[in-house]
Write a structure and sequence with these properties.
Structural class: alpha+beta
CATH class of the largest domain: Alpha Beta
Protein name: tripeptidyl-peptidase II
CATH topology of the largest domain: Rossmann fold
Organism: Echria macrotheca
Distance between the termini: 34 Å
Shape: globular
Helix content: 25-40%
CATH architecture of the largest domain: 3-Layer(aba) Sandwich
Strand content: 15-25%
GO molecular function: metal ion binding; serine-type endopeptidase activity; tripeptidyl-peptidase activity
Catalytic activity: Release of an N-terminal tripeptide from a polypeptide
Radius of gyration: 25 Å
Subcellular location: Secreted, Extracellular space
Oligomer: single chain
């Protein structure tokens, strides 16, 4: 901490005391204005009765961070290949100091609370002490009754019931107000319009039961159409076996409620990769908030098996950092917040983006729950993070998505490449693992559209401009030289899970500057046959950015090889290739690549263009794969030698 810590604490205490005194002299609050309003009924929730006025709420006010209007400038400065500062990534301390809320924001919100009868003795700024707020923390917390919250925000709270009765009730409101002079200092308050505690939905589609044709024993390049092995991937994307393991360059793979079985990993190594990998090889296990190692009482995770088996085989002898996020209740609720907490203490619960009714609470009071505190920082980071989980853009408030997306921006500034799957439902979405036909209607998006028909449903965080989003492809034929098409599969075990590469345009984030030329070219030369913005938002952040193989990928589950699909497969494949590129850069004395997209879009020649196929959904043919970038396969599939040439030429 800085040497002026004691004086700052004294000043803040004096300020709070004077503000409290002022509240007795002038209790009149400034004019309240609408801050956030739900445009449509909450997805999956039904409003019931008014909340009891004495019910207690853990209220959190997120303070607007400083300098976010310069985020793109900062990011491009270190990631644009034309920038003289390419690769000069920031320290975590510089990131925290640059985006810390202003003193004006802190003092203004504190004064409003005090004048509203919520005295300083009820405020909590951090688990440690008040000084941390002034030094860059982002939230003010306090407990209040429903009656107090309704008065504070000039709103009405109700109970909301989810259509899945097991998820119980939430307390929330349809809109809320804040003082006009403070609106620019407040991102959002919780609990208010945000009800959804969506668990990150895995995207691995594993064909269970009888598999036709049988895939046991299929190896070699002649069988890639039936079963994609590591040998097939090396032939397709022209990368060799790894031969280095730079310290700190392990590939990071987080998992939620999906568990990796060691025997399956060993069997995969023996049978489906040509590079010898010693017995007993296993990822570095990182437990976040009580995350468990696999044991016989836990279900083997198809998602974890697919991600780790594929990635580890590509990058070995480099290792994998396998983050098991959350304890026994992770399947009930939770978002990506707890993982971000573990990486960055400045984002942590009570300082970051969590809320107890949306994210798991630790210590967990449930029987058998994790009894330790929520992890705030301390987890080892990775230069590349591969996420095979998604949520639905329309089910989450824009303010929530923007705040979390900014955290991926901060990781990029520090040299981290963050990759997310694009989804497996074409231009539709999956609200659960049972259906991929979730589309938007006027009921979902309010007055934003005029059409009475369905609207395409983007995914989050695939829509975030600071991540690299990966779509899916498959082979045209048994002959590898014939190339790839956009993946498409009527999913036989469950007809509701037809599988098409996710892609489209965000309704929350605008188009990123680094992709403007490529996306504009697509829209001009291959205009989609749908009105914008009625059916899709052509001005939104467009995705995916790139693609890779995503069908009939080999995976061993419970001792049996099966075929898997999904952008859950293509994402760790691309993340592994980026890890190999980082290995090559580190061997030359250079740093990790960091945020990828400006360089990727500047060098489309480093990809094999995919020009066939589409991503149907919402009763339409979706978008089509075309020459150049498209919202089905992005820029195309990686060509490792060309990418290596590009990235080794950079500083």
């Amino acid at each position: 901490m800085p040497p002026f810590r004691g004086s700052v604490l004294f000043l803040i205490i004096c300020y709070l005391s004077s503000a409290l005194a002022l509240s007795h002299q002038n209790p009149t609050r400034s004019k309240l204005v609408l801050h956030e309003k739900r445009d449509a009924p909450p997805h999956g929730w039904t409003k019931r009765s008014r909340a009891h006025p004495a019910a207690r709420l853990p209220l959190r006010i997120g303070l607007t961070q400083s300098n976010l209007h310069l985020a793109e400038e900062y990011m491009l400065d270190v990631s644009d290949p034309r920038s003289p500062n390419f690769g000069k990534h920031w320290t975590a301390e510089r990131v925290a100091n640059t985006f810390a809320p202003s003193r004006e924001a802190v003092e203004g919100v504190v004064e409003w609370l005090v004048q509203s009868g919520i005295g300083p003795e009820r405020h909590a700024f951090s688990p440690a002490d008040i000084v941390l707020l002034v030094e860059g923390r982002n939230w003010i917390l306090f407990n209040a009754t429903v009656s107090e919250a309704e008065s504070l925000f000039s709103t009405e709270y109700h109970y909301y019931e989810h259509r899945d009765k097991s998820r119980g009730y939430r307390i929330g409101c349809d809109e809320y107000h804040v003082p006009e002079k403070l609106r620019r200092h407040i991102d959002f308050a919780m609990p208010t319009i945000h009800l959804e505690g969506l668990r990150p939905v895995p995207n691995a589609l594993v064909r269970r039961g009888a598999v036709r044709p049988p895939v046991e024993g299929l190896t070699g390049l002649g069988n890639c159409y039936e079963l994609i092995t590591i040998e097939c991937l090396r032939a397709l994307y022209h990368f060799g076996a790894g031969n280095t393991s730079a310290p700190g360059n392990q590939l990071g793979i987080p998992a939620w409620g999906s568990y990796l079985q060691p025997d399956d990993l060993a069997l995969y190594f023996r049978n489906y990769t040509t590079q010898p990998i010693p017995n007993g090889t296993f990822p570095e296990f990182i437990s976040v908030d009580g995350g468990l190692r696999w044991n016989s009482s836990l279900q083997i995770g198809r998602e974890a098996g697919l991600d780790v088996q594929t990635a580890y085989s590509i990058i070995y002898p480099q290792g994998v950092r396998y983050y098991q996020v959350g304890d026994i209740d992770v399947g009930i609720t939770g978002s990506f917040n707890t993982f971000l907490d573990a990486l960055d203490g400045s984002y942590c619960t009570y300082l970051g983006g969590d809320a107890p009714y949306l994210d798991p609470v630790y210590p967990n009071p449930s029987p058998g729950g994790y009894s330790g505190p929520l992890q705030c920082g301390g987890a080892p980071g990775s230069n590349v993070l591969s996420f095979s989980y998604l949520q639905i853009e329309a089910a989450l408030p824009a303010s929530f998505q923007i705040r979390q997306c900014n955290e991926y921006m901060k990781l990029g500034l520090q040299g981290v490449s963050v990759l997310f799957a694009s989804g497996d439902s074409g231009v539709a979405n999956r609200y659960s693992s049972q259906s991929n036909n979730t589309c938007l209607t006027p009921r979902d998006v309010g007055d934003f559209i005029d059409s009475d028909g369905p609207r395409f449903s983007p995914s989050f965080p695939s829509n975030c401009p600071w991540v690299t989003t990966v779509g899916g492809t498959y082979l045209k034929s048994h002959n590898l030289s014939h190339g790839e098409i956009a993946v498409a599969l009527p999913y036989a075990p469950n007809p509701k899970l037809d599988y098409y590469s996710g892609g489209g345009f965000s309704n929350v984030f605008p188009r990123a500057s680094y992709q403007d030329s490529a996306v504009s070219s697509y829209l001009a030369n291959f205009p989609p046959p749908y009105p914008s913005p009625d059916i899709y938002n052509s001005a939104g952040r467009a995705y995916p950015d790139i693609s890779a193989m995503a069908l009939n990928i080999s995976v061993v589950i419970k001792g049996r090889v099966q075929v898997a699909g999904g952008t859950s497969a293509s994402t760790p494949i691309v993340a592994s290739i980026i890890t190999l590129l980082n290995e090559a850069r580190i061997a030359k004395g250079k740093g990790p690549i960091g945020f990828l997209n400006p360089t990727l879009y500047a060098h489309p020649e480093a990809f094999t263009d995919v020009t066939e196929g589409g991503n149907p959904g919402c009763g339409t043919a979706g978008f089509s794969a075309e020459k150049g970038w498209d919202p089905v396969t992005g820029l195309g599939t990686p060509n490792y030698p060309k990418l290596e040439e590009v990235f080794l030429a950079l500083p």
